[in-house]
Amino acid sequence: MSKPASASASASASASTSTPKAASTPPPANDDAAIAVRGLTRRFGPKTAVEALTFDVPRGSFFALLGPNGAGKTTTFRMLTGLLEPTEGDATVLGRSVARHDFEVKRAIGVVPDDLALFDRLTLWEHVTLVGQVHGLDEAEVARRGASLLELLDLERERETLAGEASTGMRKKLALSLALLHRPELLFLDEPFEAIDPISARHLRSLLQRLVQRGVTVFLTSHILEIVSRLADHAAILSEGRLARTLKRAEWEETDALEALFLEATGGTTESEANLDWLL
Amino acid sequence: MAPVGIFLPYLWRAFRRDIRSARSWQGANLVVALFFGQFAAIRIWVVLSAGARKLTDDLDGGTRLATLAMGEILLLWMVVPFVTSISSLRRGVFPPAKLRHLPIETSTLSGIAAASAFVHPVYWVMFVATVFSLLPVSFPFGPSGVAGTLLFVLDAVLIAWLIGIFIAAGSSSRRQLEISALASAIAPLLLLTFLIRGFRQETEVGDRLLSVLGYTPAGWTVAAWTGKRALTALALLAFLAFFCVRIGTWRLRTALLEADSVGRDRLRFRFGERLTRWIGAPHGALLARELAYLTRNLDTQITFGLAIGATLLFSRTDQVYLWIPLLALPVFAVSELAIWTNSFGLDQRGVDRYRLLPISGADVIRAKNSAAGLVLLVQAFLLAAAVALRGHPIEAGALLAGALGLHLWLCLAGNELALRFPSPREFFHWDNLTQIGGPIAVFASLILCAFGVGVVLLCAPGGPIALLAGQLGWAALAALLLWLRSGANALRFDSSGSAMRARLGRER
Question: Residue A272: what are its φ and ψ, rounded to 5°?
Fold first, then answer.
């Protein structure tokens, strides 16, 4: 994928390619960034799920948030999309504070949450018209955009299928259609490539690439490093709730080794010291 | 801002499809339908009788029956809005929580939750039933009587329903939601008492409560046996409160299933953890695990609170009969808890884990039953101590025996149900029910608790010794049956464990 011009901005205001420590005073938000995260922390009782995250996502970039299970990816995702209130810190999305202006932020972004947030007893097309109305689009415009999106994602013939009876891949594609319906400037995707077939994955990759070329910022979380290495131009790696590393495309392109960088950042290269003589 | 109105057609379609789907009429939904059917049948009989009496110039008798019917309707309006409004935020056919990533204001989300509650078919039935019930009440008073009574019902409905909606909408943390929901479960009950007081000021307290609560077969039977109508009313009130509290906690647990993933951990209760370590592995490992689960469960914490409250209350009064219904509440609640979280076993995963381990079924069942029994006895001991300190040691003993007996009966029923309906049932909900075990347990608990109250009320007039003897007999019978069934139940658990291990082996 060719790197878009707009993505050549600074990858991060504070994070370097080395392991950053939690800064006591985070730098001011970068207005040029699509997302500016400053000291973002979320605690659940005694457990700290995400601690003092500080990073920027340049406008028009394809940004991947990586991390092993339980690293805090979904918690971060939910805080950035206004679904979860941070315990400390703030995030600015498209120049607006998520905490103070979550309504405006939600108008400008498209979100595919991890649970897809679909209603089992509504058809695919009813989802399209409902979300179109929520975004204030007129009926004809919803019909035009909805039909082209369903056609693009090969859902046109299934438009009268109930979401509860649709396959996982179909549900995922529908959730993506709903996120795109109002032409968002920034798209949030939580694990978009999980549980979808290779053909749909290829369509999805192609669509996301075209969106980024058009200037849309894409923020996704994923476990699938191979896809991320092909699509993303910036990435951040979380480990145990902290920002372990931020990366630019050039860093993994030169060595073709995103996986190695990921394992290094998360400590995955360390062999377990458990004594397994009894087993092996 | 998107208005609530744009969601209404979608709500309607979703609910219509849900009702028409075959799955909605299986399992527990069917049980709920039967329950409401029985309720409706009684109502029709009462309303027709009230109308007939009024037509034959027995205005007093007709008004009394008609008021009873109204009391039932009020009760239903108190409980159902709470159940549907709280749950409809995150669960059900059209949960507004799924719209949170869209640009919709919180007030609109609350409005959608409210609308989805009123689109629920239960409300249609209730509206029809209310209008039907109003006919004989307002018969001598004309249109103003109808309007006044309707307004009276609507007041109660709206207040109860708004409490549920706004508390749920405004709560963010898991704990906050659970506590708020409990408050909103109890609030309608208090409101009901207040409204009934205003509705029939000329009557005695007992009659007033009986007018609402006593119109059930159990209520009439016990009242007729004992002649203590006020006492019966109080017992039934306690019984109802317990039922509301339990519905509240079940509903919230259901609603919170989709809560923040990290926050999904069960509530921690340090005292429980310490107690576990104190009892300690390896000898009491199984029992300790069960006990730890119970003590960090919000239900147990609440019933401890209720037990302490009841203890304080009783320590300030010398009325022997007062403690029977008052103290029934925590005893019922914790005993019912025994069925749900213990005999039915943690949650399904917890039971499966046991099945996968080489532990005998007898040990598992014994540990589960004993853990709940220990918790119950600690609670009952608080109450019994208060009773004893007021100079009623025999009644205190009767209380402990009664609590133990009720626990044994509930364990007996719980063990049987848990082993025959091994699907998860703690998280059932009333919109798409497929598990039958949950509702059966609810009704089994209700019946057994009603029997428990019946035994107390039957023996109480015979004096303290009769009360103690009755409670001991009640407990001994349960213990005997539990012992007789324990072998078969253990074998059943073991065979299900073997089957599971074999199935997993094949899948591997």
Answer: -65, 140
Taking an 8 Å cut-off on Cβ atoms, the answer to whether B260 and A85 are in contact is no
- In this predicted structure, the answer to whether residue B375 has a pLDDT above a threshold of 70 is yes
- Same domain, residue pair B204 and B315: no
Residue B148 belongs to what domain range? 4-223
Question: Which pLDDT tens digit goes with each residue over B216-264?
Answer: 333 444 444 445 455 445 555 555 555 555 555 554 544 443 333 233 3
| Contacting residues of B for A134, CB less than 8 Å apart | 2, 6, 99, 102-104
Do B283 and B349 share a structural domain?
yes
pLDDT digits (tens, 9 = 90+) for A169-228: 889 989 999 999 999 999 999 988 877 778 878 888 888 999 999 999 999 998 788 888
Q: Which of B2, B101, B263 sits opposite A81 (nearest CB)?
A: B101
State the pairing for strand pair A47-58/A33-44: antiparallel
Q: Where are the domains of chain A?
A: 5-266
> For domain A5-266, which CATH number applies: 3.40.50.150, 3.40.50.300, 3.30.450.40, 3.40.1190.20?
3.40.50.300
- B198 class by beta-carbon count within 10 Å (0-12 exposed, 13-18 middle, 19+ buried): exposed
Q: Is residue B231 part of a domain?
A: no
Tell me if chain A has a CB within 8 Å of the CB of B257.
no
Pull the structure tokens for residue A278. 């009894």
Say yes or no: B419 and B488 in one domain: yes
Q: Are residues B105 and B202 in the same domain?
A: yes
In a domain, B236, yes or no: no
Specify whether the CB–CB gap between B226 and B459 falls below 8 A.
no
pTM over 0.80: no
**Pick from A104, A106, A126: CB nearest B102:** A106
Q: Which of A35-39, B14-18, B77-81, B92-96 has the lowest mean pLDDT?
A: B77-81
Cβ neighbours of A50 in B, within 8 Å:
none
Compute φ and ψ for B85, nearest 5 degrees.
-70, -45
- Asked if A188 and A31 touch (Cβ cutoff 8 Å), the reply is no
Interval A14-38 mean pLDDT: 62
Q: Is B8 on the interface with A (CB under 8 A)?
A: no
Query: What's the ipTM?
Result: 0.81
* Mutation site, A47, A114, A121, interface B, largest B CB count within 10 A: A121
- The answer to whether B358 contacts chain A (CB < 8 Å) is no
Q: Do B186 and B281 share a domain, yes or no?
A: no
Are A121 and B172 in contact (CB < 8 Å)? no
Cis preceding-peptide flag for B282 (omega within 30 of 0):
yes
Q: Which contiguous run of DSSP H or E holds residue A186?
A: strand A186-190
Given a contact cutoff of 8 angstroms between Cβ atoms, the answer to whether A205 and A231 are in contact is: yes
- How many C-beta atoms surround the C-beta of residue A247 within 10 A? 23
Q: For chain A, what percentages of helix, strand and coil (3-state, to nearest 5) are there?
A: 35, 25, 40
